[in-house]
Amino acid sequence: MHWKQPTLKRSSLLPRVTFGEGTDPDPRYTLANERTFLAWVRTALALMACGVAIETFTADLLSPLLRSTMAASLLILAAAISGCACLRWLAVERALRRKESLPLPLQVPIVSVTLALVSLVFMAILHY
Q1: Can you tell me whether residue 80 is helix, strand or coil?
Q2: How far is Cα 56 from Cα 67, in angstroms, rounded to an integer?
């Protein structure tokens, strides 16, 4: 017996807008795309936790302005990663349906540069 791939019901607005063209990809690719999205969401949650931890537990190490700036930068980064993760999931899903090349991830340079800067600032503060 040959396995038949299920098709999405295109009656609701989200699937029509998001996946209105192309063909359903292999479910393994869709699920891998979803796992990647969830990994980015976990990263955003971890950054949120770091921002909250800096604000909560470094009162005696950092000045209030620096502490708030570092915490806010991590929280803003977490929000940006979460938003980018959603946009990337949609872009990858569309590319899979259209059988196109996958888009480059915007999150990688954003996370790398921001975390490098926050780490350097934090190391400089702890060194003094």
Answers
A1: helix
A2: 9
Whole-structure pTM value: 0.75
Q: In angstroms, rounded to a whole number, what is the distance separating the alpha carbons of residues 94 and 109?
A: 22
Q: What is the pLDDT of residue 117?
A: 86
- Chain segment 43-72, per-residue pLDDT in tens: 999 999 999 999 999 988 888 998 998 899
Cα 21 to its chain centre, rounded Å, is: 25
CA-to-CA distance for 50 and 73, rounded, in angstroms? 10
DSSP 71: H
| pLDDT tens column, 95-120 | 999 999 998 888 888 888 888 887 88
- Rounded-to-integer distance, Cα 104 and Cα 58, Å: 36
Contact 92, 39 (CB under 8 A): no
Higher-confidence residue of 55 and 23: namely 55
Residue 104 DSSP class: P
Residue 123 vs residues 3, 62, 71, 81: alpha-carbon distances, Å: 56, 12, 15, 24
Distance CA 8, CA 55 (A): 45
